[in-house]
Design a protein that fits this description.
The chain is mainly alpha-helical. It has one domain: Arc Repressor Mutant, subunit A (Orthogonal Bundle), CATH 1.10.10.10. The chain is 65% helix and 10% strand. The chain contains six helices and two strands. Strands 1-2 form a two-stranded antiparallel ribbon. The longest helix is centred in the C-terminal third of the chain and has 25 residues. The two termini are 31 Å apart. Pfam families: MarR_2. GO terms for molecular function: DNA-binding transcription factor activity. InterPro entries: HTH_MarR-typ (IPR000835), MarR/SlyA-like (IPR039422), WH-like_DNA-bd_sf (IPR036388), WH_DNA-bd_sf (IPR036390).
Length: 143
């Protein structure tokens, strides 16, 4: 193979973003947030998510997702609330501390995007964004 597979190149970029965001989050004082906890929290829907959905999206067992949600809850990043659509179920939603760390992560993500745009140029960055967005149609069952 003359050059790396596009999937590998996307993974390298995603790993870079994950590391930069983790460093920014830790520097902001949220050093108790483990990578596993962050990966589950990042999958929370705006109106909350069920543990089973988080497990499926993170590709982990329901038991593992439950343990991670317990850890997130103990650290005050999330809370569990009744699901308005099903009285028997509970939703996991971001708590105020979780929203605060989310703002730190979004700022770092925006900084990375600006750096990449400066490196690639606006036109190439737009093409990259369009191509990756189009690939979601065939790669992301949770889009």
């Amino acid at each position: 193979m003359d050059r790396p597979h596009p999937g590998l190149l996307m993974f390298i970029g995603a790993r870079y973003v994950e590391q930069r965001v983790a460093e920014a989050v830790a520097a902001a004082g949220y050093d108790d947030l483990t990578p596993a906890m962050a990966r589950v929290a990042a999958r929370l829907g705006e109106d909350g998510s069920r543990v089973t959905d988080l497990a499926a999206q993170a590709r982990i067992t329901k038991q593992s997702a439950s343990v991670l949600v317990d850890q997130l809850e103990r650290a005050a990043y999330v809370v569990r609330v009744p699901d308005p659509g099903d009285a028997r179920a509970r939703l996991v939603v971001l708590a105020p501390r979780g929203r605060a760390v989310q703002r730190v992560a979004r700022r770092e993500e925006a900084a990375i995007e600006r750096e990449w745009a400066a490196h690639l140029g606006a036109e190439r960055m737009a093409v990259l964004q369009d191509a990756l967005t189009a690939l979601r149609e065939i790669t992301d069952p949770y889009r």
